[in-house]
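Bumping my old thread because nobody answered last time. Still need a sequence for this structure:
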């Protein structure tokens, strides 16, 4: 093998040895864009990439049902998800699905399952269209915390911020509804 050819092969290998595929780059970007993981270093993100689960859903496919055991959260990488609660609508006990919210790319849901002991889903999640979700489950969080405590703390601090913000927003909505019912 001539020197020029050998150099070309070495350059090709060197240029491509650490190159990410489009799929990996997309997963890395999606994880980094999520508020829970935005403080992670490149090394910490690579650790996370190896323990999350990516799954595709067809339109109208159930992701989880209200009352089921919750094991983790989902990030919407592509597509959309509708969240419903089941409510009794009459004395016969018939259940009706009441829409709560519509989530799209970048949104995440199910995060309480990461911190609650024996968590139960408070709503039903159904894909609104072709959807790709990144699943981050409690055993993965515990694994990260054990293998890289700094990364685990970063994720938990961000999760605490998110849950605190959501609690404040919910409290404000309840307060507003109480005011409205008093004036009617």
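Sorry it took so long. Here it is:
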């Amino acid at each position: 093998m001539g020197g020029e050819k050998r150099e070309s092969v070495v350059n090709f290998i060197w240029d491509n040895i650490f190159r990410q595929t489009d799929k990996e780059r997309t997963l890395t970007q999606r994880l980094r864009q999520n508020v829970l993981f935005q403080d992670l270093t490149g090394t910490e993100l690579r650790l996370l990439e190896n323990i999350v689960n990516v799954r595709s859903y067809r339109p109208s496919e159930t992701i989880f049902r209200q009352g089921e055991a919750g094991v983790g959260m989902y990030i919407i990488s592509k597509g959309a998800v509708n969240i419903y609660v089941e409510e009794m609508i009459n004395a016969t006990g018939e259940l009706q699905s009441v829409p709560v919210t519509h989530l799209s790319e970048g949104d995440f849901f199910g995060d309480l399952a990461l911190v609650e002991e024996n968590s139960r889903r408070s709503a039903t999640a159904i894909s609104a269209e072709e959807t790709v979700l990144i699943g981050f489950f409690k055993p993965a969080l515990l694994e990260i915390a054990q293998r890289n405590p700094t990364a685990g703390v970063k994720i938990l601090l961000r999760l605490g911020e998110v849950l605190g913000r959501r609690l404040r927003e919910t409290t404000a909505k309840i307060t507003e509804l109480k005011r409205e019912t008093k004036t009617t």
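The first helix runs from residue 3 to 17. Let me know if any region looks off to you.
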